[in-house]
Design goal:
mainly alpha; 10 helices; about 0% strand; globular
Length: about 250
């Protein structure tokens, strides 16, 4: 039997090697590109520490966090509602699933002017733009998850005279949860990207707005610092969701 520290090392070896490799490549790119294009990891950390110690960046972090949280909640709620409804009702699913795929194939930036006219310039527009990226993937994964449920489970629910709500809560969701959660994991990632894009193109607050403003002014320190914040946040969210996803699949 291997000692506990050996199993811990095996579990964390991959992520640690990846982190070291990323910082090594980052430093190498800095040596190649020079000061005009980027900053070294040490310079970025030094600037970021001063930036986080002040009050200038925190309102933008809070704005992005609030918009992202609202967009994720809407994506999950609406995506699950659509997916469970169309997955459970076969005829409706066969009719509307191709429509969802067609809508999702449309480049999202072409729809952003419509969202701006509908919701205005502010929090609502970027929340809607973020949710637009996540709803359909979650719905499509949920539809397929419900379709793959063993028919005997559905027959059992009908034999017990379950209502539609009871069928969804007691049978569909528990049986399809691993695959549904995979869709949620992908949908959340896309929602975060959509929210950030919404801030970059039509917003006056948030990390996306600050990043675009820094790019216009060629402020490399701000660009590198905000990019690092976004990467760390995305990695943390993806890591947590991926760990839960793997645990759910191992239980199947």
């Amino acid at each position: 039997m291997s000692p506990p520290h050996a199993s811990v090392w095996r579990e964390w070896r991959g992520p640690l090697i990846l982190v070291v490799a990323v910082f090594a490549v980052w430093q190498l790119l800095y040596l190649i590109a020079g000061e005009m294009a980027m900053r070294s990891p040490l310079q970025t950390f030094s600037y970021l520490r001063g930036l986080l110690a002040g009050d200038r960046i925190w309102p933008h972090i809070q704005e992005t966090a609030r918009a992202s949280a609202l967009a994720v909640l809407i994506s999950i709620a609406v995506g699950l509602a659509i997916g469970l409804t169309l997955g459970f009702r076969k005829i409706a699913g066969e009719i509307f699933e191709p429509m969802l795929v067609a809508v999702y194939s449309i480049p999202k930036l072409t729809l952003y002017p419509i969202l701006l006219l509908t919701f205005g310039l502010g929090l609502s527009a970027k929340v809607a733009f973020g949710a637009l990226h996540g709803i359909i993937p979650i719905a499509l994964f949920t539809i397929n998850a419900v379709r793959n449920i063993r028919p005997i489970l559905i027959k059992t629910g009908r034999a017990l005279n379950y209502t539609t709500g009871e069928m969804v809560w007691r049978i569909l969701i528990p049986a399809a949860l691993p695959e549904i959660f995979t869709g949620i994991r992908i949908g959340v990632s896309l929602t975060l990207i959509g929210t950030l894009l919404g801030e970059m193109f039509a917003s006056q607050r948030g990390l996306g707005y600050t990043l675009m403003n820094a790019m216009g002014l060629h402020n490399v320190d701000i660009i590198m610092s905000i990019t690092f914040i976004l990467i760390v946040f995305a990695m943390l969210v993806s890591g947590v969701l991926l760990a839960v996803d793997r645990r759910l699949h191992r239980r199947v």
